[in-house]
């Protein structure tokens, strides 16, 4: 499934762009806890996207070979979300909880925006 890899690489580029904006916001504004929460959440969101892309690729290979299909790793992605929220609750003076949660949703937002952009581009 090379198209999964291409989609992942494109979305990873968008997330790195957002992370660079968050780092600039952390460095040059007084909202350090908010931007640090966004950085943590988005970084773990990128890790979850990588896990999802890798497992989807393995899933496609297993289906093509007729082998038994394993899960797509929902528990590991949920564990990273729980870990990031626990960190935000443990260090509220460093990490803004809502920013961490918003950062965790970043990859899903990027996936939706990328889907709509590709749908528009394929029509033209």
Automatic annotation (TrEMBL):
Short name of any one Pfam family annotated for the protein: ATP-synt_I
Superkingdom classification of source: Bacteria
Mode of membrane association: Multi-pass membrane protein
InterPro entries referenced in this protein's UniProt entry, alphabetically: ATP_synth_I, ATP_synth_I_Bacilli
Main location: membrane
Keywords (A to Z) from UniProt: Cell membrane, Membrane, Transmembrane, Transmembrane helix
TM regions (residue ranges): 12-28, 34-53, 74-91, 97-117
Cellular compartment(s): Cell membrane
Lineage: Bacteria, Bacillati, Bacillota, Bacilli, Bacillales
Protein's recorded name: ATP synthase subunit I
